[in-house]
Design brief:
The protein is α/β, with parallel strands linked by helices and 447 residues long. It has helices at 10-15, 25-37, 77-80, 100-104, 122-131, 153-161, 218-237, 241-258, 261-267, 274-280, 284-298, 316-341, 407-417, and strands spanning 53-59, 85-87, 94-96, 109-112, 170-173, 192-193, 302-307, 348-353, 357-358, 370-371, 377-381, 389-390, 392-393, 400-402, 425-427, 433-435. Strand 15 (425-427) and strand 16 form a beta hairpin. Helix 5 runs parallel beside helix 13 and helix 7 runs antiparallel to helix 8 (241-258). The chain is globular.
Amino acid sequence: MPRYCDGIRRRDLLQVGALSSFGLSLPALLQAEAARAAGPAPVPGRKKTSDPSCILIYLSGGPSQLEMFDLKPDGPAETRGEFKPIRTNVPGFDICEHLPRLARGAHRFSVLRSLSHTNAGHGGGAHYMCTGKHPTPTFVETTTRPNNQHPFIGTVVAQQKGIKRDLPPFISLPMLLSYGGPAFLGPGYMPFVIESDPASPSFRVRDLTTAPGVGASRADERRRLRASLDGSLRDSLRTGSARATAMDTFYQKAYDLVTSEAARKAFDIGREPEKTRDSYSRSTFGQSLLMARRLVEAGCRFVSVDHGGWDNHTTIFPTLKDDLLPQVDAGLSSLLQDLDDRGLLDNTVVVMFGEFGRTIQINKEGGRDHWPHLSPVLIGGGGLRNGIAVGKSDARGEYPLERPMKPEDLAATLYTALGVDYQTIVQTPLGRPVQVVTDGEPIHELL
């Protein structure tokens, strides 16, 4: 099992997804949704003419800016790498030669070439990029409490916008995104986690289908068992019956939500034509992006897709050329074109980043090390301006040269594009007000 350079296994980071089974998170979310609906009116100024969704693609480990969207072919041999830039269909906008399909569709996205921060740790960098909030000294690098200081962008969107149609508002696949949790917002805003590989012939979504060899629905059995236990508990305690009855209602609604016909159809990736599935590539990443498109089309507000393997301290060039870049090229180009062809791109923000970039120095193992001072970002759709490169790095691709940006600015941009006021105040369990983005502004070039 691959590990990050700090020794944490990727599987350890994914296993916490078990915390978000529908029996825990969705009923709490529905309860919170009811409270939200009874609370203050929406913040003035949010979009009223559309109800956008977001697909966030996380390149876990830290992608290299120098091998994707900001190549430096004129740099010295010890830093410039092996890849060459190619022209895209947008004049003056070049990307890596191993992303040819993206190059032909560059009018559908933009890149940020000068986003920078200073946290070079996997956990801290991921937390910063995924929340727009810099971790404080009490931040804990943990595999059991993801995102333990500030809420992930998707959880804030779920809290602020609620359920759109017949799907959970926030879904994570194929497993829980590292540091993709709700922090102090509580378990009601954990994402619904698929915990299955959409590329596998045996793919199925837990709680929606019957396990092989099991005659009755596991979800039905789980629901009946819970009803029995709840009844015994109420009888023994003889208190709290009103709250228990209310929670039963929320459990029933949660069950109906994830087992609805709309949900079953959305999760049934086998409905897609073979040609479409092939275009995304039959990799886990490609099929996860296809599933993400199906989910936003069916009404999910926010889908996160985790793609690991980018902590390239060794043999970075063959790893990127033969594996990672072809997957991104096929999957992401197909996603953007598919959304466009279906009339969904203008109402779906697609964003891709990792925790940081990589050093300009190529180490003795043929890799590049952590470098947060330039962190590559691709962003498109959602009514944003596409086909541009925002910002500029220095001649070596090491530091911002023009238009420096930070994770707070990216978070503010995403919130704005998704119809959420980035200055929204949320409350901790102790009643402390926290602004979701501080010291950040939307990137005006994209808006």
